[in-house]
Amino acid sequence: MNALVLAAEEAKSPLFPDRWEMLITFIGFVILLFIAFKFIVPAFEKVYKDRADAIEGGLAKAKAAQAEAKAARDEYNQQLESARLEAQKIREEARSEGEKILADFKDRANLESARITENAHKAIEAERAAAVVSLRDEVGTLATQLASKIVGESLNDDDRANRVVDRFLADLDAEQGRTGAAR
């Protein structure tokens, strides 16, 4: 009985499991490893590869998008600079055109002013000439009447009257020239 008890105790030892249990566990472990390497690991590898490809593709797309955005920004900056230069050119042209228009208006105003001044001088000269003629006639008439009273004879003869008036006016102009020079 001792041997039986020993055999039973030997079979129950947790440190030494039964050989059949060990063999079945080992075979199950090998089958599990085979299934894992045959089906599960390739599936994980595929998922890993897909994710890596997706990440790399995403990075490539991000780099492409970033390059495209940079190109678009550079193009926008070029267009903006071009627009600034165009606006500056337009402002300069407008300023130049404004200066030309202003110069043209000044020239027109100066010409108009000169024309008006010339017309005014002509009008004044014409009025002066008319006044001188009118004054000569009145002075001549008065001089003729005065000379008639002084001389005591009538100076109705036009030629004689004209000579007397011309001599009187010449004397008057000479006297006026001497007083103007003395001043």
TrEMBL record:
The keyword Coiled coil applies. GO terms for molecular function: hydrolase activity; proton-transporting ATP synthase activity, rotational mechanism; proton-transporting ATPase activity, rotational mechanism. The keyword Coiled coil applies. One of its GO terms (cellular component) is plasma membrane. It comes from the Bacteria. Residues 55-100 form a coiled coil. Its main location: membrane. InterPro entries: ATP_synth_B-like_membr_sf (IPR028987), ATP_synth_b/b'su_bac/chlpt (IPR002146), ATP_synth_F0_bsu_bac (IPR005864), ATP_synthase_B_chain (IPR050059). The chain crosses the membrane at residues 20-41. It is a single-pass membrane protein. Keywords: ATP synthesis, Cell membrane, CF(0), Coiled coil, Hydrogen ion transport, Hydrolase, Ion transport, Membrane, Transmembrane, Transmembrane helix, Transport. It is found in: Cell membrane. F-type ATPases have 2 components, F(1) - the catalytic core - and F(0) - the membrane proton channel. F(1) has five subunits: alpha(3), beta(3), gamma(1), delta(1), epsilon(1). F(0) has three main subunits: a(1), b(2) and c(10-14). The alpha and beta chains form an alternating ring which encloses part of the gamma chain. F(1) is attached to F(0) by a central stalk formed by the gamma and epsilon chains, while a peripheral stalk is formed by the delta and b chains. PANTHER family: ATP SYNTHASE SUBUNIT B (PTHR33445:SF1), ATP SYNTHASE SUBUNIT B', CHLOROPLASTIC (PTHR33445). Component of the F(0) channel, it forms part of the peripheral stalk, linking F(1) to F(0). F(1)F(0) ATP synthase produces ATP from ADP in the presence of a proton or sodium gradient. F-type ATPases consist of two structural domains, F(1) containing the extramembraneous catalytic core and F(0) containing the membrane proton channel, linked together by a central stalk and a peripheral stalk. During catalysis, ATP synthesis in the catalytic domain of F(1) is coupled via a rotary mechanism of the central stalk subunits to proton translocation. NCBIfam families: ATP_synt_b, PRK05759.1-3. This is ATP synthase subunit b. It comes from Kocuria tytonis. The lineage of its organism: Bacteria, Bacillati, Actinomycetota, Actinomycetes, Micrococcales.
